[in-house]
Amino acid sequence: MTQDLTIDLGEQMLNCRAAGIIVKDNHVLLHKNKKDPFWTLIGGRIQLGEDSAHAVEREFEEELGISAKADRLLWVVENFFAYRDYPFHEYSFIYLIKDVENKLQGNGEVISHVAGDFIYEWIPLERIEAISLKPDFLREKLVNLPSVPVHLIHKEKISVEAE
């Protein structure tokens, strides 16, 4: 039995997440829950006994049906935010991802993929600053990815409501 590294502490949620950035033709692949007004990186919760690189590879396989490789770690983020008025303390590991079999097309066109509750879309990097993206530091950082892993502490004070 697999168990997500998420602990509901009653008044706050502790969460461990792995996410990935895949860039092709100056577009980044993002997704959003149909109920939320914002975009986010593809990823999910790390499972007990699983390392973060494997977790993000597993999430890309589950969500998009592709073989993905965690190329290199970009950020380790201590992320503090509220989602639907519930406070979260989250540890995120964000990787640069390679599409191993080159199945995803990001050829300059915005291509949508809809699966379940999520919409997947290639967003042009020049539009990143204009969209609602969580965590919000990504709007600035996605256009200039670090060459070595960076530790960030990100505190977002705005509550995110579902539509």
UniProtKB/TrEMBL annotation:
Domain Nudix hydrolase residue range list: 13-147
Cofactor: Mg(2+)
Record PROSITE patterns: NUDIX, NUDIX_BOX
Keywords: Hydrolase
SUPFAM superfamilies in alphabetical order: Nudix
PANTHER family: GDP-MANNOSE MANNOSYL HYDROLASE, MUTT_NUDIX FAMILY PROTEIN
Name of protein: Nudix hydrolase domain-containing protein
Species of the source: Terribacillus saccharophilus
